[in-house]
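Supplementary notes for students who missed Thursday's class. We covered one full example, reproduced here. Read the sequence, then the structure, then the short commentary at the end.
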Amino acid sequence: MPFMAAAIPYIMVAAAAVGAVAAVQQGRAAKAAGEYNARVAEQNAQYAREQSALQAQQADREGRLRLGAIRAAHGASGGAAAEGSVIDVLGDVASQNELERQDILYRGAARAGGFQGTANLDRMQGRTGQTTGYLKAGQALLGGASQSYNAYQRV
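Structure (token representation):
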């Protein structure tokens, strides 16, 4: 039995070391998870930018088709291409088309910005998790050393 009593402080130190290693590993895992989530969010941001660029191209194409249809209808009705009202209508439609295209690009940039903000937050949370792991490791080591010393004093 005296052997067991003498071994208690060493067992407490070993338990503290295991707890410290586990805390460090938990912190590393938190950082890795944060980094992974950040990469996914950055990919989503890139997809949002690409998607809005494609939608803007499509809206631009549709706008050109609308302008062509207006010109064709006006020409078919016997009107001259340079008449004032037709030019006004074409100008208004062209302006509306450009406004729609820019709105699509703006919404895509806003979505991308949201994803980028999420990526930054994920990275920050990962770093915080890693720091917390190191602090918990230090706490486990200091607590284990203190308990071990108290147990040694009693032996």
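Commentary. The chain has a mean pLDDT of 89. The helical segments are 2-76, 84-154. If anything here is unclear, bring it to office hours.
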